[in-house]
Amino acid sequence: MITDAELPVWARADAFSEAGPGWGWVDRKGRRVACAGFEELSQAIVKDAGARVDLVWTPDAPGFVLPEEIPALHPALREARIRWAGWEIEEGKRQMLMFGAAFGVMLAWNGFRTGKIMASGSTGLALLLFLILGFIPWYQGRKRLKKARIWAAGEMAADAPVLRFETWLSIQKSPATRLLLGLMVLVGLVQLVVEIREPLPGATFWMAGLTKSAGAATDWWRLLTAPFLHGHWLHWLMNASALAYLGKRVEVFARWPHFAMAFAISAWIGGEASARYMKQLSVGASGGLMGLLGFLLVFESMHRLLVPESARRRLLAGVLLTAGIGVVFSHFIDNAAHAGGLVAGMGYAALVFPKSSSPHRPRTTTVDVVLGGAALGLLVCSAVLACVKMLG
Prior knowledge:
By secondary structure, this protein is mainly α. It folds into 2 domains: 88-163; 175-391, Rhomboid-like fold, CATH 1.20.1540.10. It is built from 14 helices and 5 strands. The protein has a 3-stranded antiparallel sheet with strand order 2-1-3. A two-stranded antiparallel ribbon has the order 4-5. 38% of the residues are buried.
């Protein structure tokens, strides 16, 4: 029999808080909602419109558990998931219609204005929104609907480990990731204010972005400031969302010093690759983010008992999706920074962490804390410098 000590932290009986008496459920903000009994709990799941029921408690469970771990709740979950999938499909259709129309109008306008049917930055953005906000949610909704309709006994329980992992991860604290997100917000607000003030669109790019000359950055400090600038609101939002998830996953499992060092090193090397292989000016945290993704690919492969196999496969899917988007939108996506950051993050994990068969997370050493603190300090100084350069 496997004991708790032989399990990763998210799979243990005490992974979630102790539950109170009776029946109830917990929403994503940690609020507890008591129920009179099983029937009321089932109805709460069936009527759950916003997928808020993350955890439940019952008289038989010593702590909170996933509803997928209670076979009696599977019919209610199936009904709820069919409805969620249907909503996702309809929302995906709506977004595809809206951004597909925007793409067509912009393409037609460019043809009318120039006499040629040609893409531009605006049409590329509309097509990217069509893909990310429309097609992908629609496709995922179709897959989830098909799966939910043919669920057999035991299949939902088979999904429980990865859902338990993701639910546990979502409630973990990640202060270093939150600090970096706060720096992105700060620099983003300063960039917005300066762009409104300046008559020339994109003025901030020249003030603190990665300008290049002869295969190198025109100023070394731009390798530090450019990752905190972004081309537009969608660019910022996508990077912030990726940082929130990837950063937390690295920080929780490999600890905060390695999160800070992996991001800083990958952002720097991604910038160097961009300066060498891409002539256009560059902004964005993509090099550092791809570094975190590459770090996780190698780190979790060498610590195979830390996370479920399906959760690791999703990381690889993220790499393939990013590569596909990079090929389609290569005229305005910095693929050199993506590739440089990815390789840097993979190399960092391979050099620093030995292969392990333990289900436990690595411990932090004093050297890790010192170097990680220095990397975090460098990132703070870089964000402040970006603000100073833009404010002039």
